[in-house]
Amino acid sequence: MSASTAVLRAEARLIGRNRAGVFWVVAFPPLLLTILGLLPSFRAADPALGGLRMVDAYVPVAVLLAVIMSGTQVMPGFLAGYREQGILRRMSTTPVRPLTLLTAQIVLHTLVALGSAVLVIAAGRLIHGVSLPRHLPGYSVALVLAALVALAIGTIIAALVPNTRTATTAATIVFFPLVVSAGLWGPVQVLPEIARRVVELTPFGAAAQALGQAMRGDWPAWSLLAVTALWTVALIAAAARWFRWE
């Protein structure tokens, strides 16, 4: 077994033991969509959404909720804890480099978030009759970009905080603006024109719109993908610059 594989397996076991984190990332988004979809107001066609039901518009929002929670609520605690306990420093003296552990964390949290996205889409389809994404390549591109943005934000949080307690506080402060821009308190499509244009300049506002367009069968607007991609590049560069192993 290679060192990378061993680290990946060990991290997978540790993430699996974090039952609270697994619940909020994997179970909560599809559960939230299921409950909201039972409300009469969510099952009625809405002219403001082009005849779609509110539950149809909330599938991309629930998908982004899983991505945001994985990147900003769960991963920073792991990384800050490893630095606080000196694990990263000790690893630097072994053949297994800290970068291997960081890569394993990013890969695993991405897989967990994508698995939750599949559950959200399945719950929407099986329970509420929501259509599956009609433009799967476009949907996949927008989702991967959103996941990278979330993980970059999580890495930045872990880079700037001194311990796990501060990481939790910082992640909570960051979490709410992100989910608001993603449309948790109202889909981006129903916002006034000026507000929608502003929200579309945020990474998850643009991602929510891109996912919604792909759900309807269109390739996401290049402007939306460009906004998400630029945020991804900028945040990954910042994370690489600010992250410290000790």
Can you characterise this structure?
By secondary structure, the chain is mostly helical. The chain has one domain (3-242). It contains eleven helices and no strands. It has helices at 3-17, 19-36, 40-43, 54-84, 87-91, 98-128, 136-160, 164-182, 193-199, 203-215, 222-242. Helix 2 packs antiparallel against helix 4 (54-84) and helix 4 (54-84) packs antiparallel against helix 6 (98-128). The radius of gyration is 18 Å and the shape is elongated.
Pick out its properties.
mainly alpha, 77% helix, transmembrane helix, 246 residues
What is the secondary structure topology, with strand pairs?
Elements: H1 3-17, H2 19-36, H3 40-43, H4 54-84, H5 87-91, H6 98-128, H7 136-160, H8 164-182, H9 193-199, H10 203-215, H11 222-242
Q: Would you summarize the structure shown here?
A:
Residues 20-246 form the ABC transmembrane type-2 domain. This protein is an all-alpha fold.
Count of runs of 4 or more consecutive helical residues: 11
Q: Can you count the beta strands?
A: 0
Q: Spans with pLDDT under 50 lasting ≥5 residues?
A: none
* Average predicted confidence as pLDDT: 87
**C-alpha termini separation:** 28 Å
Shape: elongated
Helix content: over 70%
Structural class: mainly alpha
Number of domains: 1
The secondary-structure element order is HHHHHHHHHHH
Beta-strand residue percentage: under 5%
Rg (CA only): 18 Å
Biggest pleated-sheet summary: none
